[in-house]
Specification:
It is found in: Cytoplasm. The protein has 227 residues and is α+β, with helices and mostly antiparallel strands. 24% of the residues lie in helices and 30% in strands. The strands form 3 sheets. The protein has a 4-stranded antiparallel β-sheet with strand order 4-1-6-7, with no helix packed on it. Strands 3-2-5-8 form a 4-stranded antiparallel β-sheet, with no helix packed on it. A two-stranded antiparallel ribbon has the order 9-10.
């Protein structure tokens, strides 16, 4: 009997936790464990620890499988990383940093950087091929118009996987920043201005109330009534 200590960490963003069921399978050089349930409740920024019992030593742990299935309602989960301690004390780290949505199984390789030629095991070669095929499916290109750079072959960003879309946290922060800057510009007299600027010194006086670096980015997308 071999016992492996497993620690699963959830991301610290507000919606990272889940009430869906999460289980794990350890895959080693000599075999793999049974699918073991971790929990049905994950809180943001918290860790869950468990023991995975196997009938034999699995050898070096090369990858893990995280299984997610919903009980009633869909509740996406953001997995930060997984750490596995073997019976001999060897620690294996599996950086995940991705959302798991719906009923799905995600395979995560051990965190050591390796090239294609380093994959001696057939299971690692197959995993690399599946990962490449999934990326080719996710990042399909099309020509928007003649002479334009190529773009993703989707009609809406909502067709993209959550791990490809712009971070929801960043999007909220960006929206809040725009509202704050819009209010600042309105109060400083920048918005709704009907006359031209008298001089650059006048502009510097107004913009000195906010951060020049951020305002500079704003000026690139807002036409100004120069003399």
């Amino acid at each position: 009997m071999a016992t492996y200590k497993v620690t699963v960490a959830t991301g610290d963003m507000v919606e990272a936790g889940t009430t869906n069921s999460i289980s794990i399978t350890l895959v080693g050089s000599y075999g793999e464990s049974r699918q073991t349930t971790i929990s049905v409740l994950f809180l943001p920024g918290k860790e869950k620890s468990l023991s995975v019992h196997c009938g034999q030593d699995l050898g070096p742990i090369v990858l893990i499988r995280l299984h997610k299935w919903r009980l009633f309602l869909e509740d996406a989960w953001f997995c930060k990383d997984v750490r596995v301690t073997a019976p001999n004390g060897t620690l294996y780290r599996f950086p995940c940093y991705q959302w798991l949505e719906g009923v799905t199984t995600v395979e995560v390789r051990e965190g050591s950087g390796k090239k294609l030629v380093d994959d001696k095991l057939q299971i690692l070669k197959e995993h690399r091929h599946r990962e490449l095929a999934a990326r080719q499916e996710a990042y399909r290109w099309k020509n928007f118009a003649q002479g334009w750079p190529r773009c993703l072959n989707v009609d809406s960003i909502f067709e993209l996987d959550s791990n490809i879309q712009f971070s929801r946290i960043r999007a909220n922060n960006f929206t809040g920043f725009l509202i704050f800057q819009g209010a600042s510009h309105f109060l400083s007299g920048f918005l709704l201005r009907r006359s031209s600027w008298n001089s650059l010194d006048e502009m510097r006086t107004i913009f000195s109330r906010t951060q020049g670096r951020d305002i500079g980015g704003y000026l690139l997308c807002c036409p100004l009534p120069f003399l």
